[in-house]
Write the structure tokens for this entry.
Amino acid sequence: MIGYATLGSNDFEAAKTFYDAVLGELGGKRTMTMDRMQGYGSVGGGAMLAICKPYDGQPATVGNGVMISLAAPSRDLVDKTYATAVANGAKDEGAPGLRGGEFYGAYFRDLDGNKLCVFKVG
């Protein structure tokens, strides 16, 4: 299904530092590296999240209704990842908690305003 998702950044170095910390909580680490893009993946492969400087040279912008969701293996890791994101400059978009049924999630915006959710079902 999904091979990778890409988020634009206007401060590429700050974005790499942010995602090193946040995705590191979930076992993510730098994988594919290029001058304008940094990919993050997990051990064993699977889908990748990348950040990049837009190739057209225009400022990166966020999409209305666009969100990237990151799966966590436990509710505790949802809490920890959210706390790490906020401690590294993310804007709170919804503290960790149940969102109907067994969906436990937390929402934040990265340094460029991209919206992310970290979640655990069950």
Remarks:
- The chain has a mean pLDDT of 95.
- The chain has one domain: 4-121.
- The domain at 4-121 is CATH 3.10.180.10 (2,3-Dihydroxybiphenyl 1,2-Dioxygenase; domain 1).
